[in-house]
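Give me the fold.
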Amino acid sequence: MNSGFCSNIPENCTKAKDRTPIPLLGVVGAQCPECSSPLTTQRGASGFDSKWIVLGVAGLLLVGWGVWHLLKLSGVISQDDIDVGIKSDTKFLLRMSGSNTIGAKLAPELMKSWLQSMGASDIGVNQIKVDGKFVPETVVSASLNKQQVQFEIRAHGSGEAFKHLKEKSADIGMSSREVKTEEIASLAALGNMKGRASEHVLALDGIAVIVAPSNPLASIGKQELMGVFCGKTDNWEHLNAGHGGINVYVRPNNSGTFDTFKHLVCGSKPLVASAKAVEDSAELEAAVARDPAGIGFIGLPYVKTAKALAVSDGSESVAFAPTTLTIKKEYYALSRRLFFYTPANSENPYVNQFINYALSPAGQSVVRSVGFVDLSVVVPEDIKKPDLLAGSSCKLSNNWRGEDRNKYCDIKATMKDLAVPFRFNTGSSELDNRAWQDLKRVLDALAGRNEPRQIQLVGFADAQGSYAANVGLSVDRALAVKDALRTLGLSNIEIVGFGQELPVRDNSNAEGREQNRRVEVWVK
């Protein structure tokens, strides 16, 4: 046939309405000269080829799917519309697994910011639903270098981080606790998980102990906490906080928050059988705030309407409230580090790129915006600040055994605290992995300032051994930090050691002693 007919709806084109024959002229895919619709070689009852109806409907469906997919990637379509789990054969540029504390919000926000820094577009963050219910899994999608890419974040608990690293089903492990000895051994093929190439301190968090706003209790010791959460203290009168039974709320036992709290407070003892496990931290906080008899624990960013208690770590240490400053200095008894763990020599080039971004000032600003405590070092402009050790009355303390009992208070009165105490690997004078990163942060904070800076390093030790020996150890640690800072180009550094004075943690246990072995940095 040498002619065709317009396939448009007759009312929109006169040639279609009149069923006017149009010469084909041997052209493949010829179009109507009036409306540019495709030509058909047969007329249906209504004057146009019925096969174009089928093709048109199929085309509309294909276009509709494409539009939906683009809207999903850009986040326009609600997450409620996604009801599929992550397929096992899906290819991800980067796979992260572990802590819900990190993976629920912090990791996706870091991923978004990182992708934006590389010029990615159409970034979508979608939580996965399986059988109509959300699961703690997120897929971040984006257009990067003209390609569609995906990143996987599974947040089922810190223990999963090390399991999936070993299985090589994760590139980065997220953990809200330090790697355990047995996990280090099981992952030896990937390198030393405690080495600087594998353990990355991402941020700081505090596990807040919360009660209802009406509860008269203001502070509590770790021994009292142990009685409530893993002992026989079941009435508020035992804590001088009224009468009636205590309702205990906890996170589920697969969460890093639970693991850290149990380790710090209960040790090997199980939590009380009557404790009510609540999966979501926000729900737990709201439940305790509504319950005058309730007490629970959550990550610091989740404290909204409940009252957070100050916590002391032993009779000699001060009860610190969970604040940004006390957590940044790791003085608060229930503060903790948040970690990324990676193979020492990952074959995935995106691993180091992402880790470096997360630890950079840009990444740390994301940490801060999400509500965790970042590791940035800032020189305070105003030295008139609340005294972290208020109540210890260091100038008048009869417990101070050294001759320079007032010198520390003089330092506090005339200098500025960088809130970055350097700590050391267990049983070693070697700086730990956070401290190595903090060296550069201190340098960056002090660089580019016109006025000369005097740096005062103040060393402390635990209470084991003789007093004189501990003073010597505290001086040695301050000297180690001084040498490290001098290699970076900083000078005008003075050191002093106060031995076992001013403990911030309990000297009766190994972890408390480790926290007391520290070097504070003050500037003038």
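The chain is about 30% helix and 20% strand.
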